[in-house]
Amino acid sequence: MNIINLHHAVWQSLQARRSQMPHALLLLGQRGLGKFELARAFAGSLLCEQPQSDGQACGQCLACNWYSQGNHPDFRLLQPEALAEEGEAEEGKKKASQQITIDQVRGLDEFLNVGTHRGGLRIVIINPTEAMNRATANALLKTLEEPAPNTLFLLVSSDPMRLLPTIRSRCQVVPIPLPPPASAEAALTAAGVTDAKRWLALAGGAPGLALEWSQSGQSDWLETLIKRLSAGQSLEPLALAGELEKAVKDSKGRLPLKAVVDGLQKWLVDLQLAGNGLTVRYFLPQAATIGKLAAMIPPSRLSRAYRACVTRRREAEQPLNARLFLEGLFLDYRALFAA
Predict the structure, then answer these.
(1) Is 90 exposed, middle or buried (0-12, 13-18, 19+ CB in 10 A)?
(2) Rounded to two decimals, what is the model's pTM?
(3) Domains delineated in the chain
């Protein structure tokens, strides 16, 4: 997908800052909007020695060649080791870290204390910024409080409330909104996604997430979840928990438990919308079924269920027992239809 076309207005606002660049920009938006890709494109345009009229990198100069190969001397990327590694981990190999470590931040000292190689900016992208513990965040804060000259930090975050307020206060915020649905659907179709409208709805309007789901085998467990939830009071919670636990295990990390909770949350949102006579947002093909189910559930009971699901979403990060967790989740769902 062409991320610049999807976020054309944001791209123009970024280019307008070139003449007076701050020391840190914080790109905020929900997951799957292409914030990281946008940050990389912007960094490439700033490092390019012959940018195009719209600010995009030329892709031909020496700086662009270095950048595309990942070895530009004036650029650093800080991200969790798990994101940097490609493919599945080797058998017996230590599991890659899901966090940006304090050693990674401290490793910037030498980079920031020498002159730039090409006489321009030095750029650091941190993605995702919330993947830092407090010690790491405090180490970064010291750098942001006394920024080196000719240095730009591009921080990317989908969960700004997990950032230190002092870090947020030292950045200029760049909100990344949802792209227009028509543009997002066209981009997904061009990328080879069939039924782009359905996937975009399931992803909450985020085209990157819709593309990821459509290409990563997500349809199997989603179809199972949809089919079972559509049964309402006839749902067999233990059977569904067993099916989804197996899907989580078989995915080898590609399907986190929290994604299952997210799916149920979205189903509950659609039930609330249908119960209030509004159009469903996520599960478009199941709109009629959701409308019938919503009519069976007292509104107050549905609201309580959604609040409880929000708590379950947090618990899904570190469940003591995934099977028991899922069984409790779906037993609570079936209880919505009790007389």
Answers:
(1) exposed
(2) 0.85
(3) 3-175 (3.40.50.300), 216-335 (1.20.272.10)
